[in-house]
Amino acid sequence: MSGLFAEARKRLKAAAKHLEVDPDVLEKLKYPKETLAASLMVRMDDGSRRSFKAWRCRYDDTRGPTKGGIRYHPQVNIDEVMALAFWMTFKCAVANLPFGGAKGGVSVNPRQLSKAEIERLSRAYVQAFASFIGPDRDIPAPDVYTNQMIMGWMANEYGAMVGHPTPAVITGKPLVLGGSLGREDATGRGGYYVLRLLEKELGVSPEKTRVVLQGFGNVGYHCARLLHEAGFRIIGLSDSTSAIYDSDGIDPVAAMEHKRKTGALAGASTNGKTVEMSNAELLESECDLLIPAALENQITGENADNIKAPLILELANGPTTPDADAILDRKGVTVVPDILANAGGVTVSYFEWVQNKSGYYWTLEEVQSRLRQFLEPEATRVWQLKQDKGIDMRTAAYVHGLDRIAQAVAAHGTKAYFSS
User: Fold this and answer.
1) 5, 82, 370, 383: which one has the fewest Cβ atoms less than 10 Å from its Cβ?
2) pTM of the shown model
């Protein structure tokens, strides 16, 4: 077996070497609990009908209902969806959320669809997967090229199908439709909190750290904004079409204003002489902190040797392959892994779900305070495991998550229990 899912499972095998885990646990995590594929038939604006491949995978629900985003991207496939659901399972365990992991996606280029076509596609997704999702079964959220409005359409469609509003079925909704304050910047903010908590251990400080971010969407922008406000120097940014680099520094707020006006980063003003380059070149540029915040498989066995950053903070899901990890570890590069660094998004999604369930909504200060309270103890524990076991941070995070999942599985009884 090869592909992204097979690569993802290598993380589990690496973690299991450092923990006494009952074979029942590894067998349970070997494959997803269930995966559903569907063809979404959508009426296009010109009156024609077009079908789109779609998937939803619920990987494991031992610790609670499954949770995970839905992405719209032309490269989405079942292998990617299963890998993302696997990562979500461990991310929820690392963050100590009462959720399992899931993921969904549609193979589509949303830029080629009108807004009305995207709405019909989103409602068709819910129609196809209505029996698969649910506020106590599987709770979707936004991901690549999906947003608050799309989540609002989906929640509305589900409510129409069951006969009553059910805001807890979807998170990442608009605030006026039951969304949570603090959700928009939660992923970037969570990564920022983890970095600042461990900055002494990681050897970074605002005044001495040059930062490059690959991926200047919602997640990358908010992390860049927080780092810039704290005094970190942002020297490189990229989106799907271009990358800019300036060793004198870039104001991410001004860069985002330019991107919103023009549709691209290219041409954004900086503090000195701007150098435009490719995404690949930006990854290999000189910096102290590299933040991949785009798609998976960006740092691979082919380019890992060229990475100059001594520290990587993963805000994307799966941006570094196992082959690249081995090279980076040999070079002494520290990687703060995705299942810890970008767990802020699913944590505030959990907060939204809790608020929807209770009908009581929190202030922005409460959300941000609770996010810090959730993530900081887990980041500390992962760092302690790294030190105690002499392993890299990614393996330490998987050991931490696997231990929690294993305890939940064992609570139902394993071979050791039934054979005693």
Assistant:
1) 370
2) 0.93
